[in-house]
Amino acid sequence: MSDLAELSVTDAASAFAKGEVTAEAMVRACLARIDAHDVKVNTVIRLDREAALEAAAAQDKARAGGVALGKLAGVPMMHKDMYYRTGKVSTCGSKIRRDFTPTVTATALQRLDAAGAIDMGTLNMAEFAQNPTGHNAHFGDCHNPWNLPYCTGGSSSGSGAGVAARFFAAALGSDTGGSIRLPASICGVTGIKGTQTRVPRTGVMPLSFSMDNVGPLTRTARDAARVMTVISGSDDIDPTAAPEAVPDYEAALTGDIRGLRIAVPHEWFFDSADDIVVTAFEAALEVLKARGATVDYVACPSLRAIGAYVAVVSRVEGATIHANWMRDHPGDYAIHLSGRLYGGYAIPGTYYLEALSRRGALLRQFCKEAFIDHDIVATPTLRMRVPTLAETDIDVDPAANWARHMAVSANTRPFNYLGLPTVSVPCGLDDRGLPMGLQLSARPFGEGRALMVADAYQQDTDWHARMPPLA
Fold first, then answer.
1. Which of 81, 167, 222, 354 is at 20 to 30 A from 6, Cα to Cα?
2. pLDDT tens readout for residues 274-327
3. What are φ and ψ of residue 298, in 5° steps?
4. Helix ranges, 237-371 (H)
């Protein structure tokens, strides 16, 4: 434990519970790393230094007094700046909400507080969570700690970059089209979006009512399992939160995937894929096969319709949420976002209703194609190598950069429309030293199975343990 900031969630919680470290020491180690390096990465929007140290001291006192400890006691965390906390400004990465002070605290934050986690503040993000690359015209772009000119993925850019840089052990992000899994893959960490409605969205800035997801970015699948166990479950305030009982996801991480059947769709996920990405993905499959899993390539023709409908739903729902601000403050949006929102207003209502009404049928069709004889769907998280910030900046050059910008999230978006639990884990470094990701999806409420496969993969690889040069 030469640097306490390098402890994972489960290692930090274990060391704290055993009395090997104090919460205050872990928080100070994280603060020191932020102070030293965040000027280059730009992950932090609000750093609650004194409040975090006070919360850490309270956890240390509770442990000394023999108080029962929560699953995350003493663990330093920060969160995407769209999780509301009463009395604290939540900018949502925007100019419009630069001074917004909520009067509620997000259910997910309340559950982390109750589990003993230490909240150190809020993180940079794409404006109103509508960007897959991590650009932000108002607070500055977030930079990839593996190579600063490269993008972090978005919209949970600060969450992915900060976990990778060891600024904190874990962070909450949100995922409407891949915004947890993209920064997880691009920054070399683990990220999961659960089944649609698995985690309550109370007190979280909305983007798309029918596709928003709350979830963590962490170092390991085991870390993600522990955080998901804490934040998942029904919520009296959020009627959309699923009532299904929450299992102990961490307890399911046995490493035994003998006989598990993995499907790899022929369609969509490999369109114009970079060779190095395909090679890394195939190598990851070999690791899983060596543990006893079987792999089959399957036909999933439903993906073409799914890929078209997901864009309709997200654009119309996003434009609806922003209608009043777009009328009153259109100049306060970055160019790329205002253009995206105006596009949403141009989509006919009949197209939107068609996309919604076909959703259940396409979910059944995809499950029949991919899951009837299989347990997991595996794909690359990105088809492409990590692009630079300049190559994906559509405010500067939309004509040249738009296709590359949208290609970043091509492989993640379908699972938001389908509402399926999906995890991304690091599976290699490309020829420029940037991370690549393996994406694993399961049936509805199959988070435990996806995490079990992710953890089994990490037991035989060390990509998740590697630190970027900045760290």
1. 81
2. 999 999 999 999 999 999 999 999 999 999 999 999 999 999 999 999 999 999
3. -130, 160
4. 275-290, 303-321, 323-328, 335-345, 349-357, 359-370
Cα distance between residue 14 and residue 313, in whole Å: 43
Of the candidates 179, 208, 314, 424, the residue annotated as catalytic is: 179
Whole-number Å distance between alpha carbons of 136 and 212: 20
Q: What is the pLDDT of residue 370?
A: 98
Tens of pLDDT, residue by residue over 329-369, are 999 999 889 988 999 999 999 999 999 999 999 999 999 99
Answer for the pair 384, 274: CB distance below 8 angstroms, yes or no.
yes
pLDDT tens, 75-132? 999 999 999 999 999 999 999 999 999 999 999 999 999 999 999 999 999 999 999 9
CB 60 within 8 A of CB 103: no
179 in active site: yes
**Gap between the Cα atoms of 97 and 185, Å rounded:** 29
Neighbours of 28 (CB within 10 A): 18
Element (H, E) at 53: helix 49-64
Identify the pLDDT of residue 2.
Answer: 60
Q: Where are the domains of the chain?
A: 4-465
Q: Residue 1: pLDDT above 70?
A: no
Within 10 angstroms of residue 114's Cβ, the number of other Cβ atoms is 12
Tokens representing 414 are: 């379908």
For 2, 15, 53, 124, 263, the CA distances from 30, given in Å and listed in that order, are 13, 16, 11, 17, 40
Catalytic residue selected from 8, 71, 80, 94:
80
Is the pTM above the cut of 0.85? yes
Residues 6+ apart with CB under 8 A from 425: 184, 190, 221, 437, 438, 440, 454, 457, 458, 463, 464
Does residue 471 carry a pLDDT above 80?
A: no
pLDDT band at 395 (very low <50, low <70, confident <90, very high): confident
Phi/psi for 468 (5° steps) reads -65, 160
For residue 264, the SS3 value is strand
For the question of residue 155 being annotated catalytic, the response is: yes
Q: Domain 4-465 belongs to what topology?
A: Amidase signature (AS) enzymes (3.90.1300)
Q: Please identify which of the residues 8, 90, 155, 159 carries the catalytic annotation.
A: 155
Coarse DSSP helix, strand, coil percentages of the chain, rounded to the nearest 5 percent: 40, 15, 45
Q: CA geometry: angle at 124 spanning 72 and 197, to 5°?
A: 55
